[in-house]
Amino acid sequence: MQIVIDPKRLERAKSIDLDKIQVEYQPQKVVAEVPSERGGKFYKVEITPTSVSCECPDHKTRGNICKHIIATTLKIKQEKPDFEFASVDVESPSAVNSNYIYGRPAPEFLIDIFNTVSDNVLLKGPRGTGKNFVLQQVAEVTGRVLYRLSFSYNTDESVVLGHYTLNDKKQMIYRYGVVARAVKLSQKKPVMLIMDEINALRDPMVLASLFTLLDDGKFLELPNGDKIERGDLWIAATMNPGYAGTSEMNEALRDRFFSLEFHYDIEIDKKILTEKGIADGAAERFIGFVNSLRDNGVEISYRATQIFADLIASGIGEQTAYTILVNHLFDDQTEKESVIAALPSLSNSTSVLEELKLKIGG
C-alpha cells in the first residue's frame, strides 16, 4: 500500500510515542492500536495491501491519511524495514540539494524539457545515477506537489488507479489510487508524478489507463467509470534496463515519453572525491576499483563513492573504508568475491584483500 501523506501530518505523527503502538501482523493485514497525540485514548488502525483505515475522527469524517496511520507505518518501518505493503510517500518534494546532482542534468535542463518538449519524460539508466534526485529537485524548484509510486511485478490497478472498499458506515466507496489522486490534484495545483521502475509494470488494465493519460486525450479512466481530466501534471518515469524483476518496456508506452539516458560518468566520481579533499593516491585507487567493477557489469553508484569519500574524510583508513563499503553494498558471497578481486593493492602492511577475506570469511 503506497501511502501518500502531507508533511505537516508527518511531523505530528512523530510526536506519537512509537513504543506505545501495539502492532499485530496478520496475513495480508496489519492491525495496530495507536495512542492519541495526547495519550488519552487509543485508535485502531488497519493497513492492507489495498486500503488503510483508522477509527479517529480525522480519518472517519474526512478520509485523511491521519497521524495515527502515519505513525503506524513508522512503527512498521522500525520493526520490519522490508515489510512489503505499508510504504509511505510524502506529498512533498525534498529540498534542493546540489550535492546529489554531480554534473547530471540540472533541474533547469529538465524543466525546459517539460515546458517546451514534453510533459512526459522517461529517465533510463543504471541505479544510483541520480535519476530520482534530480526529479525531486525539479519538483522543488517549480513548487510542485510530488507523488511517487514504485512499480514491481505485483503492482496492480488497486494501488495505481483505485479500488472499492467499505467505509466506517459499511457503505461501498471507491478509493482512488496514487496516480488517480495525483491527476485529481493536478486540476487544482501543479503536480509532479514520478513512476519508478515503470518497466516492471505488467497489469494490462493499468497500461491501458496510462495510455490515455499520457497521449493527447490527457485523461485517466478508472475502473469505476470515473474519468479524470489531466491538469497541470508533469509525469516522469524511471527505469533500470535489465534490472531484476523488470522487462522490456511496452513499446506503445515508451513512445509516449521523451527519453533521456543516464550513464555513469567517472568525472562525477572524481568530483565527489575532490570535494571531500581525498588525497590523489587514494582517489586514483578508488577510481581504478570503480572502473574495474563497472567494466564487468557491476553497478557501483555515486552513493557508493560518496560513502567511501565520507569514510576517508572522517579519518578511517583505506583498508577499513573498503571493508565497510563492500559489506554495505553486497550480500551475495559470489559478488563479494568478485569485488575482492578488483580491490586495489595498497602500500599498507595489511592488504585490503587480506582484511576483506578475514571480514567476510573468504
Give a quick precis of the structure.
The chain has helices at 7-13, 57-62, 67-79, 107-116, 131-142, 157-160, 178-185, 204-214, 251-254, 266-275, 280-295, 302-313, 318-329, 333-342, 352-360, and strands spanning 2-5, 22-26, 29-35, 42-47, 52-54, 87-90, 120-124, 145-150, 162-166, 172-176, 191-196, 219-221, 227-229, 233-239, 258-261.
Describe the fold and architecture.
This protein is α/β, with parallel strands linked by helices and 362 residues long. It has 3 domains: 87 residues, no CATH class; 164 residues, P-loop containing nucleotide triphosphate hydrolases (Rossmann fold); 95 residues. Helices cover 40% and strands 20% of the residues. A 5-stranded parallel β-sheet has the order 8-11-14-7-15, sandwiched between helices. A hairpin with a 2-residue loop joins strand 2 and strand 3. The protein is globular. The two termini are 40 Å apart.
- Give the overall form: globular
How much β-strand is present in the residues? 15-25%
- In total, how many domains does the architecture comprise? 3
What is the number of E strands? 15
The portion of residues assigned to helices is: 25-40%
The overall pLDDT average reads 77
- CATH architecture type of the largest domain: 3-Layer(aba) Sandwich
CATH topology of the largest domain: Rossmann fold
Number of distinct helices:
15
Largest sheet: 5 strands, parallel
Strand order across the biggest sheet?
8-11-14-7-15
Tell me the series of helices and strands, N- to C-terminal.
EHEEEEHHEHEHEHEEHEHEEEHEHHHHHH
CATH-level-4 superfamily name of the largest domain = P-loop containing nucleotide triphosphate hydrolases
- Judged by helices, strands and strand pairing, the structural class is alpha/beta
Q: How many angstroms separate the termini?
A: 40 Å
CATH class wording of the largest domain: Alpha Beta
Gyration radius, in Å: 23 Å
Q: Detail the poorly predicted runs.
A: 86-105, 347-353, 355-362
